[in-house]
Amino acid sequence: MNEKKSCFSAILEHMSSTYNIVSLIRKKRDGKTLTREEIKHLIDAYTTDEVPDYQLSAFLMAAFLNGLNDEESAALTESMLHSGDIVDLSHITGKKVDKHSTGGVGDKLSLILAPIVASAGVPVPMISGRGLGHTGGTLDKLESITGFNVDMDLARYKEIIGKHNLVLAGQTKEIAPADKRLYALRDVTATVESIPLIAGSIMSKKLAEGIDALVLDVKAGSGAFMKNVKDAIQLGEALVGIGTNFDKETIAYITNMNQPLGYKIGNWLEIEECIDAMQGNGPEDVMEITHLLAGTMIYLGGKATDVKEGIQISKQQIENGEAFNKWLNIVAEQGGDTDIITNPETYPKAEYEFEIKSNKEGYISAMNSFEIGMASVELGAGRRMKEDTVDPTAGIVLEKKIGDKIDKGETILSGYTNKPSAIEAASNTLVNAVTVDETKPEKELLVSKVIDRRGCRAFEL
What is the 3-state secondary structure (H, E, C) of 24-43? Predict the structure, then answer.
């Protein structure tokens, strides 16, 4: 009798694991593996409002605490991907390649490399996000260009990329709606910091763009979500694993975010640095990583035999002016003022400026990118909540970077704002974010690892 009862219970458990939400939550709570069908049922039911927030919150916490294996991560990504439309770009000739960064301070690379790659003949369907917290958002930077429109439906999205080999857009309501809902829920249930959930969120949106291949810039350091290389590698491997499972060639690089990229932080300020970069005057660190990522995209797009050749083509597109011309074309197509791009000195300036000076002689030995990013938010360049308004003219300009010599009284950085009440707090944050020592620090690698279908290894060209 007991044996029969046990068998009957097992059958009921199997049935409920397929259709009963509580059983799915219990199964993940107990550290068991969910099937592809179970995850699909859960996400579909939540997307159609059959499952309330409180139940999905319980599942998210169970997944956060017990993790998701590679198969579960792929299933979660697939379910979020198919919750909306997958863009069909089959009418566009060539392999479609995009790039994604996990976010950092002064990270304006997408705005430089996208025109480079598109001008080299590789279609780039780029859907980007807004800034939240200490990291800047590509959409906010684009919208600092007078008139630039990032909001469009899928028909317009496809029209622009067909015309220019490039589109710079925000996430439409048709693309991965389940991810949008899950992210909002994770944000208020302390389940954001989960590598499988982060990876699923990123990849569901990217795969929905209609891409054939993807390049990932996974940042590690004080200004990155992943504070150390070990965690960045784990995230990079998860992202590449999902891309590989979906038969999309995916390459990730682990890059350094222990100091801001370039010298300018803030929306229009970073556009200014992008203009300089596309005219051949970009900062060394910005251009090194830009050419690596662009070169990899050009290689994956079939326009180079290897990454080295791709890098050379990337540099050539800057030198011959084709990347800048592509940039002007896409700005005009999406409603932006090209006169501002060709004459950036005419752009309005922030009303208030202040400087942070060194109180001793020595070398810049450390910069806390997170604190610098938060100071820029305080000045108006970012948002603490999604509803906050961003000031395109606010931000920070670095005069020195790690390893640079500095004299007592010399300026380390300048701040710009239209909020005079924010200057004192931002100044205090910035003073404590920069360290000056007597000894010159050793130079850190900008790119430490590469991850692809063959695994993770030290980066070298």
Answer: HHHHHHCCCCCCHHHHHHHH
Q: What is the pLDDT of residues 102-130, one digit of tens each?
A: 888 999 999 999 999 999 999 999 988 76
pLDDT confidence of residue 385: 67
Catalytic residue among 41, 130, 164, 205: 205
Same domain for 221 and 329, yes or no, is yes
179 catalytic? Reply is: yes
CATH number of the domain to which 384 belongs: 3.90.1170.30
Domain end, chosen from 66, 87, 107, is at 66
Which residue in 186, 303, 315, 400 is the catalytic one? 186
pLDDT at 76: 94
Which helix (DSSP H) or strand (DSSP E) does residue 203 occupy? helix 195-208
Let me know if residue 14 belongs to a domain: yes
376 shares its domain with 236: no
Catalytic residue status for 427? no
In a domain, 82, yes or no: no
Catalytic residue, chosen from 107, 140, 179, 276, is 179
The answer to whether residue 388 is catalytic is no
Say what the pTM is: 0.89
- Domain hosting residue 370, numbered range: 349-437
Please give the single-letter amino acid code of residue 416.
Y
| Number of continuous H segments (helices) and E segments (strands) in the chain | 18, 14
Phi, psi of 218 (to 5 degrees): -100, 110
pLDDT in tens, 364-401: 999 999 999 999 999 999 877 666 788 999 999 999 99
* Lowest-pLDDT choice from 116-125, 169-178, 307-316, 331-340: 169-178
User: Residue 214 in 3-state DSSP?
Assistant: strand
Strands 455-458, 447-452: pairing kind = antiparallel
Q: Which is the catalytic residue, given 82, 96, 99, 100?
A: 100
Clarify whether 247 is annotated catalytic.
Answer: no
181 is catalytic: no
Domain co-membership, 186 together with 234: yes
Query: What gap in Å lies between CA 201 and CA 203, rounded to an integer?
Result: 6
**Crossing angle of helices 267-278 and 284-300, rounded to 10°:** 70
As given in the structure block, the two tokens for residue 461 are 């060209």
- Residues 201, 204, 314, 358: which is the catalytic one? 201
Q: Is 80 part of any domain?
A: no
Same domain for 321 and 453, yes or no, is: yes
In a domain, 91, yes or no: no
